[in-house]
Amino acid sequence: MEQAENLVVGIEALGARLAEAGESITRRFIGQGQVVELVLTTLLCGGHGLLIGLPGLGKTRLVETLGTVMGMSEARVQFTPDLMPADILGSEVLESGADGGRGFKFIEGPVFCQLLMADEVNRASPRTQSALLQAMQERSVTIAGQLHRLPEPFHVFATQNPIEQEGTYPLPEAQLDRFLLRIDVDYPARDAERDILLATTGLDDARSRRVFTAAELLAAQKLVRRMPVGDSVMELILDLARACRPGAVEAPEFVNGSVSWGPGPRATQALMLSVRARALLKGRLAPSVEDVIELARPVLSHRMALTFAARARGESVGDLVGRVLERVTRVEAVA
Questions:
Q1: pLDDT at position 165, please?
Q2: Which pTM does this prediction carry?
Q3: Distance in angstroms (rounded) separating the CA atoms of residues 52 and 80
Q4: Sign of dihedral through CA atoms 77, 80, 85, 90?
Q5: Which residues of 230-242 are buried (b: 16+ CB within 10 A; e: fewer)?
């Protein structure tokens, strides 16, 4: 009983801090509350995010602000076709000592930070992409046979431009699966854009202040994993993921005809963690069906692929996930 009470107190206190952090972020990144919620969800789950949006929508500003508010050291790498793995990970250089002796010294690359922005990640070669994604998964890099641990926490937010695909190297599906959430950054509403004009074109730019430290973020990530999840929410997560897999017993006919491959167990793990984080951000003690509905597309849309025929018909993964979600929740309600 005492353990449960401590958990409740911890969740309520963390929820209040997160509300303060969200307010501080939106002071500089205006009119994109849904995006802010998703990036905070990604951090609370200990994952990485894929930001999809046109140039000029504030993605760089968002990540910079996120590093300030959450108390993390940050770095930014502009991905280009000539970028090499060593430009991200670091390399060994031959160095002369004061005594005249020579030896190799490891020079850390920009990946040795707590929050890395990989700008236009699909413009780098597959070799460079895989070097970054390996570091994301293993939280370490190996240079010249030596293992080097990355700082904790370690998060990557990679960006992609959805329209300019010429000269790019699309991330393979297995690498996309490493990102916890796909976060679409759209144009702001008219009123929000007016606020942006007023806040960013004067003499003073709005500033954000630090709310968390890196150690406090790590503690928050552990607390999220302790949050209880009800059987109804867990069953909905399983039903949803399995219904998106072509050939599965639970898959409806339109999935079998439109999806070439569906989400694996990593998707259900991501959804299970994400709904906990969203409940925390909303000030609740446990996730609900609403959280699953809201996070289905950000979690699943980059973990599925349409058939050629479905693409030719103009179908989209997001719309298909919506159809599956509608069908699964309707069945759940009847049951």
A1: 67
A2: 0.92
A3: 17
A4: negative
A5: eeebbebbebbbb
Contacts of 100 (CB under 8 A, 6+ apart): none
| Average pLDDT across the chain, whole number | 90
* pLDDT of amino acid 23: 92
Report the C-alpha gap between 73 and 64 in whole angstroms. Answer: 10
Element (H, E) at 271: helix 265-281
Compute the chain's Rg from CA coordinates: 21
Among residues 245, 248, 249, which one has the least CA distance to residue 321?
245
CB 285 within 8 A of CB 10: no
Q: What is the pLDDT of residue 55?
A: 87
b/e sequence 52-85, b meaning 16+ C-beta within 10 Å: bbeeebbbbebbbbbbbbbbbebbbbebeeebeb
- Antiparallel, parallel or unpaired: β 305-306 and 259-261: antiparallel
Nearest to 233 by CA among 283, 183, 284, 281: 284
Predicted local confidence at residue 332, as pLDDT: 62
199-238 pLDDT per residue, tens: 888 877 778 889 999 999 999 999 999 999 999 999 999 9
